[in-house]
Structure formats: C-alpha cells, structure tokens
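Appendix B. One record, verbatim.
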Amino acid sequence: MTAVIVIIAIVAIVGLYFFTTQRSLVSLDEKKKNAFSQITVQLKTRWDAVTSLVEMTKQYTQHEHDTLKDVIAERRSTNVTPEQMPGQEEAITKVLSRLNFVAEQYPDLKANQMFSETMAGIKDYEEKVRLSRMVYNDSVTKLNMMVRQWPSSIVASTLGFTVQDLLPEEPAKENAPSVSDIFNK
C-alpha cells in the first residue's frame, strides 16, 4: 500500500512539474511573440515617418522623391520575420542617409519645421525599436534557457519548443549616421 502511495505521489509531482513547465514555456513564447510584434509596429511607424519625409522632398527635388519612393515601395513590408528584420533596418538606414544628403543640398528643407519634427520623431522611433529589440532578445533568452536546461528541456522537446535565434545587432548600424547628424551640421 505504501508503494502505491509513493508511486502516485511521484506521478503527481511529475505531472504537476510537466503542467507548470508547459505553462511557463507557453508564457515565454507568447512574450517573445508580443515583443516581436512591438518591433514590427515600431518599424511600420518609422516607415510611415520616413514616407512623410520623402513626400516633403517632393517640392525640392522630384528625382530624389521618385528614387526614395521606389526604395520604400520595394522594402516596406508589414509581415516581417526575425530573419528579415536586418534587411528592413538596412533599408530604413539607406533611405535616411539619402534624406540626409537631400537635406544638405536643400537648406530650406532642412530648416522646415515639419521636416525637423518628423526627423525627431524618427529618432524617437529608432530608440523604441532598439528597446523593443532588447525586450525581444531578453524574452528569447529566457525561453531558450528553459528549452535547453534540464529537466525543463524534456518537457520542451516533448511539446515541440525549440531554441530561437536572437535578433543580431547590425555592425553597419554602429557606423551609420545618426538622424540627429542632420541638425548638428
């Protein structure tokens, strides 16, 4: 009789552990998805601001406006995966560099208050994207720790949870011109 009670207690403890670990894994996975969703929202908002800047260039130079519109149409996407994120960030950096060049060529554009406010907004969006990337990578790290550590790795592999990739920091971003460079020159 004691052996049956011990077996039932062990099965109950294992079952309870499996249940709580599954809930933790699902919670971490949802936090990861939410963090990535925040990044895509910030990217979309940043693209909207960049598009507004491009529209402002239209009155100064049609050629630059058309070129930048083509780049935006080519690269802007609302359904971005973690693997596509660096390409989106690179496209925004290229458009902003081009806008920086145009602003240098047309001081009236650079002095335009709406242009200045939009550029300041883009800087704010860049900071929000950076923070959202940190939250995403933190969420992925916590999930990966549970997926890889024993004994939660047993539950994770049983339920199909796998190690996720972190969003890499782009080396090109370290040397990229800052949006504020436009105003400091």
